[in-house]
Amino acid sequence: MKAVAVSEFKGTPTVMDLPVPGVRPHTVLIKVQAAGMNPFDWKMVDGIMNDGKMKHQFPLIMGVDGAGIVEEVGEGVTRFKKGDKIYGQFIHSPIGEGSYAEYAIVPEKASITFAPANISAAEAAAVPTAGMTAQQLLEHLALKKGDVLLINGATGGVGSFATQLAALQGLRVIATASDEANADRMKRLGAEIVLNYKEKPLTEQVKALFPEGIDGLIDLAGKAPDLKANIELLKKGGAVYTTMFVADEAAIKEEGLRGGNFETQGSAVSLDALSKIIESGKLTIPVENRISLEEVPEAVELSRAAKGKGKTVIII
User: Fold this and answer.
1) Which helix (H) or strand (E) holds 262?
2) Is residue 271 part of a domain?
3) DSSP class of residue 94?
4) Which of 70, 226, 304, 307 could pair with 84 in a Cys bridge, judged by C-beta atoms 3.0 to 4.6 Å apart?
């Protein structure tokens, strides 16, 4: 089978011809139809999970998010059967049996579930990490209907889902964007207000609109100084979470706020909850770029350089 893999940590992603993995007890073999790309994928190549506790194998096949059809089930599998359409996070130990491949082996108890019937495999592959991150960020913020939420970095995958889910909860969403096209897209996704951070400092624009302060902040793009400045926009008792791991959690607590650095906890339960919303037709799945396995190395380099635009999905 064809797969995008590396031969060592920090290696160059390459399209390789590798054996189709053999099914093991309590695992399913998936014929992958599409894989969603996330920065975490190349961070794993760089060794972010190499803490001495998580086993890795080489060649290390990249990829976490995927969608496809169950090709074979191992001994003891009860949840899935051959022919089932599934999606989710394929990550498991050993690291290196990822979704950037024509076939992938995944434990039945991994963060995978049945794919929504009303979307394509490409759309399904774009959902797991970004969708669950957005969903769980909002759960942790615990805002109420009518509260004002600022999403910094709103135009990416997580931000696109968070904007929609927040609007569905009745929150007043302020989204950031750098141009008119993205501003229009965020409005369509449910943002009440879109602010162009290139025109004027973001804090200045928000203070002019909400001098009394806002209730919540999701940071998906900021550096530590930017986050610190944006936190000053929050009312006492407000909440802030960042996926960038640049928060001073002690300082946040001292300010009378809730929140801090945020890491997604993938689960089939979270995915099932997302599936219900998707099947209701209330979520637009953001897929901006569809590429082949052969185009992945270039796309990885763009992501590393922070030059990637929009959600990229690999069609397999």
Assistant:
1) none
2) no
3) S
4) 70
Question: CA triplet 226, 126, 239: central angle to 5 degrees?
Answer: 35
Domain shared by 140 and 185, yes or no: yes
Helix locations, the chain, DSSP H = 39-45, 121-125, 128-141, 157-168, 180-188, 202-209, 224-231, 249-254, 268-279, 296-304
Residues 188 and 256 in one domain: yes
CB 247 within 8 A of CB 261: yes
119 with 187, same domain: the answer is: no
When divided into structural domains, the chain yields a total of 2
- In the block, residue with structure tokens 């060649």: 59
- Per-residue pLDDT tens for 169-219? 999 999 999 999 999 999 999 999 999 999 999 999 999 999 999 999 999
Centroid of chain to Cα 307: 17
Length of the chain: 316
**Over the stretch 49-105, which tens digit does the pLDDT of each residue have?**
998 888 999 999 999 999 999 999 999 999 999 999 999 999 999 999 999 999 999
Strands of the sheet containing 2-6, edge to edge, are 14-17, 2-6, 56-61, 95-97
> 144 and 73 in one domain?
no
Under a CB-based contact definition with an 8 Å cutoff, are residues 285 and 127 in contact? yes
- Residues ≥6 apart with Cβ < 8 Å to 82: 70, 71, 72, 73
Instruction: Give me the domain span that covers residue 216.
Output: 129-261
Contact between 135 and 169 (Cβ < 8 Å): no
- The CATH number assigned to the domain holding 203 equals 3.40.50.720
Q: Is there a single domain that holds both residue 120 and residue 135?
A: no
Bridge partners, 69 (sequence order): 31, 85
The identity of residue 173, as a single letter, is V
Q: Collapsing DSSP states into helix, strand and coil, what is residue 33?
A: strand
